Fold this sequence. Notes:
Blueprint: E1 2-10, E2 16-36, E3 39-58, E4 61-81, H1 91-96, E5 98-110, E6 113-127, E7 130-140, H2 145-149, E8 153-154, E9 158-162, E10 167-175, E11 185-198, E12 203-215, E13 217-219, H3 226-231, E14 236-238, E15 244-248, E16 252-254, E17 256-272, E18 282-299, E19 307-308, E20 320-330, E21 333-342, E22 345-347, E23 359-361, E24 364-375, E25 394-401, E26 410-412, E27 432-439
Parallel strand pairs: 10-15
Antiparallel strand pairs: 1-2, 2-3, 3-4, 4-5, 5-6, 6-7, 7-11, 8-10, 9-10, 11-12, 12-17, 13-16, 14-15, 17-18, 18-19, 18-20, 20-21, 21-24, 22-23, 23-26, 24-25, 25-27
Amino acid sequence: xxxQVSATRQSGLSDTDSSQQSLGxxxxxxxxxxxxxxxxxxxNLFTQASRSRTTTMIxxxxxxxxxxxxxxxxxxxxxxxRTPSPGQGSVVSHALGSLSATLGGNVRQTDAGQGKGxxxxxxxxxxxxFRLTGNWSRSTDSVSDxxxxxxxxxxxxxxxxxFVTGQSAEVLPILGGTPDLRPPRFDRVxxxxxxxxxxxxxxxxxVSLQRSNAANSAGPLPAVTxxxxxxxxxxxxxxxxxxxxxIDQRPINFASTRTESxxxxxxxxxxxxEAAPGKPxxxxxxxxxxxxxxxxxxxxxxxxxxxxxLVGDGGGVPRQQLxxxxxxxxxxWGLNMAARWRSGYRTRxxxxxxxxxxxxxxxxxxxxxRFSYVLQRAIRPSQSxxxxxxxxxxxxxxxVINVFDARPGASLGDxxxxxxxGRDDQDPVGRAVRLFARSRx
Length: 441
């Protein structure tokens, strides 16, 4: 069971006070149905249920909506064959390894509508430390209650590049729900290869090719281009001088969205120093994740051409992203580093061609560091002789966020600096230093 109470206050052109209460629960069970020569057939059942209420006070008027979510699902795991024990079976049976299949489905019901889905998967282990998997799913998702019923309000100001005027503008995003959203449909396929762990350092890696086709997926307009403003004039608000003042970012349905990506992962653990008697040895964990976008094409509706987001149509997206995570621990001391990098990308002014008025966003990378020390509490037996539960102690730490003070930058298609991408426009904070103390009671 989980519960949450939260409150949010925002001051500005649109003063808002919002509070939310939610309560949810999850129940799962599994049971062996029968035993095949390759192993037992297992059925897993689960149900999730939640209810929430959100109250928002805007301009002295109270708006409230409640929502519920019920999700029922089942998965069947079937072993098809397995590797014989050493000394048994033929050479062919050993070469085939182990193969298992999963079949599943779920039904979801909310105030905003109903969703359902089916999925299937295969997992093959040709060798002990190699695994090949394939997964397919098809689903119709229900629109979330917030996407459909949330009241309209102004969000925090954002700086955008206005292709119509060729200047940057600080605008107010209009947020909230869209009552007439249609439920999205998804078809997803993923093929993965995993290997490891190897060597004393537990080196392991994986590669995964993922493809997704969606119809009626919901989201905000991707960019402030003249083409999109002409197609959705009521979504863009300008003053008498033509300056952009607000953008309606409430969700709309996209006719279709097709994406393909290649994700890879590599991880290893290294021991630090010699283990002292009664104390664990220190460790250093290194993880690298890389994502390469192979395809990203969106069609908003039939009157607009398909937008290839990777070349900049309808708002560009980075083609590559790299994340590096380092986690070290020795005794009471800890060190964590998170490095993130994304490639540059272009946003075209006009769909289908590059021009001098395009926006070219530069690559950017950031590094965050955390140093920590755990002060353990002394453990004393109680008068009854029972040793109390060991606590986590008090953790003291220092966070340095964006160590090198990197800021996003951009230029126009002809090389001129892009308005709205100065040092303090997109990220006015930059580097930040934070001290903290944390304890569990």
